[in-house]
Amino acid sequence: MQQVNVLAICAHPDDSELICGGTLARTVALGHTAGILALTGGELGSRGSVDLRAKESDAAAKMLGLSFHDTVGLPDGAVLNTPENRARLAVLIRRAKPGVVITHWLKGRHPDHAVTAQLVRDACFVAGLKNIEPEVPTHRPKKILHALSFREDNEKPTFVVDISDSFEKKLDAVRCYASQFSDAKQAGELFPNGESLFDLIRHHAAHYGSLIRTQYGEPFHTSETMRVDDVTTLEVASL
Question: Which residues contact 100 (CB under 8 A, 6 or more apart)?
Fold first, then answer.
């Protein structure tokens, strides 16, 4: 596994592209590296197959410019936050050595999403404990970001990333999952309203973009308060 600056860890193969694909593409465009870990192969999906979704994941990773898109192999629909799973994920985090980890919001429509969010937080902590899986050197990421895309039951975002320049690439990455999303009206936390899935994604991104006075955005929450060194450089007009 390659080392990356930003690592998205989500429950299913297409989750990261949906909730933070624009941010991952922007990260790469800025000269950094990024990767995705899907905890499951999505074997409970009503459409497609595990093998097909793996091929779609590879195509999406190339579209976003990622260093890798791997699957951990936990059971779809039965992701559990156990000591064994925390240690297993901690080893992968140590090998990738990300400074930033992105995962789901701590609530979610799919049971795997909420469990994954807490599992990732706990695994990032465990990754810094030298007596757990001691054969792999420790590494604890600096920041854990919870993606809030498509959530309206969350706290106000801590910040929103401007993905105006990478939004179309995000859509192209989501389109790589044709077995899941062709003619779809709903996905993950996206509830149907009669529009196509891709129109829904666009409208949500436009909503969050409007909060920072830009075309498209992806929202994130941090449990810790963010630091500002120079108030004169703060973006987005108050009035």
Answer: 5, 6, 7, 141, 142, 143, 144, 145
Which CATH number do you get for residue 91? Answer: 3.40.50.10320
State residue 186's pLDDT score. Answer: 66
Query: How far, CA to CA in Å, does 192 sit from each of 27, 148, 183, 202?
Result: 30, 18, 12, 14
Q: What is the mean pLDDT of the chain?
A: 93
159-162 and 217-221: which strand pairing?
antiparallel
Other residues' Cβ atoms within 10 Å of the Cβ of residue 234 = 9
Q: Do residues 201 and 185 make contact, with C-beta atoms less than 8 angstroms apart?
A: no
Count how many Cα atoms sit within 13 Å of the Cα of residue 97 in the half-sphere of its side chain.
7
For residue 98, what are the domain limits?
A: 6-233
Dump pLDDT digits (tens) for 137-176: 999 999 999 999 988 777 789 999 999 999 999 999 999 9
**Do residues 93 and 57 make contact, with C-beta atoms less than 8 angstroms apart?**
no
Mean pLDDT of 91-97: 98
Residue 33 lies in a domain: yes
